[in-house]
Specification:
The protein is α+β, with helices and mostly antiparallel strands. The protein contains 2 helices and 3 strands; from the N terminus they run H-E-H-E-E. It has a 3-stranded antiparallel sheet with strand order 1-3-2, with helices on one face. A hairpin with a 2-residue loop joins strand 2 (about 55-60) and strand 3 (about 60-70). Helix 1 (about 10-30) packs across helix 2. It is flat and about 30 Å long. It starts with 11 loop residues before the first helix and ends with a strand.
Length: about 70
């Protein structure tokens, strides 16, 4: 998710991620979604965390975050 500078300090990123996850889970029945985020990109990891993703692992410069459907 990439936003123009004025929108980057809002919750638009989190909202876009949450909407995409909700849509994908509902339409395709996905139970798990992973995001790979560069370690230095704290804004992105924060947006994914707020959208329900949880930190899973870290390799080199990349962190893996994961969302799982609630049962």
């Amino acid at each position: 998710v990439s936003l123009d500078r004025p929108a980057s300090y809002t919750n638009y990123g989190q909202s876009a991620i949450a909407a995409a996850v909700h849509s994908a889970a509902g339409e395709w029945g996905l139970q798990k979604i992973r995001a790979h985020i560069l370690k230095f990109n704290r804004a992105s990891s924060g947006s994914f965390r707020k959208a329900g993703f949880r930190f899973k692992s870290s390799t080199g410069e990349v962190e893996t975050w994961e969302w799982r459907a609630e049962h």
